[in-house]
């Protein structure tokens, strides 16, 4: 065996290597991934049982919402049908108030309609016994 002794001051073999070898890290991570993929089905093993199936059926059907529109000059519309008098509107609201569950009343008032016209509808809804009255508005544009 020959041994070479470098006694000179210039040593080119002792340069610092600053790179990191990531191959062993990748190898270890792949082995761990394979081990986890193999052992996960074994860990989640359960007793095989046949579970019952259900069918989604609504128990209570919701009635259609009632849409009442008020024009700028005070005309009242039930959906798209014009209502001639407050007594007729009250009669129609009482019929809807007797339903179980009660429908929601949605009031669409014109922007330039007087408060009196819309307030009369709210009063008639309260008098008929309806509990849910909503106002439909135009959302602000962005």
**Uncertain residue segments:** none
Give the ordered list of helices and strands. Answer: HEEEHEHE
Assess the beta-strand content as a share of residues: 5-15%
Helix segment tally:
3
What kind of assembly state do the chains in view correspond to?
A: single chain
The CATH class name of the domain at 66-135 reads Alpha Beta
Question: Distance between the terminal alpha carbons, to the nearest Å?
Answer: 87 Å
Q: What structural class is derived from the secondary structure elements?
A: alpha/beta
Tell me the CATH architecture of the domain at 66-135.
Answer: 2-Layer Sandwich
Q: What characteristic shape results from the CA principal axes?
A: elongated
Query: Can you give the mean pLDDT?
Result: 82
Order of the strands making up the biggest sheet:
3-2-1-4-5
CATH topology of the domain at 66-135, what is it called?
Nucleotidyltransferase, domain 5
What does the largest sheet look like? Answer: 5 strands, mixed
What does this structure look like?
33% of the residues lie in helices and 13% in strands. The chain has helices spanning 23-43, 86-97, 115-128, and strands at residues 66-70, 76-78, 81-83, 105-109, 133-135. Helix 2 packs across helix 3 (115-128). It has 142 residues and is α/β, with parallel strands linked by helices. The chain has a domain at 66-135: Nucleotidyltransferase, domain 5 (2-Layer Sandwich), CATH 3.30.420.270. The relative contact order is 0.12. The chain starts with 22 loop residues before the first helix and ends in a 7-residue tail after the last strand. The chain contains 3 helices and 5 strands. It has a 5-stranded mixed sheet with strand order 3-2-1-4-5.
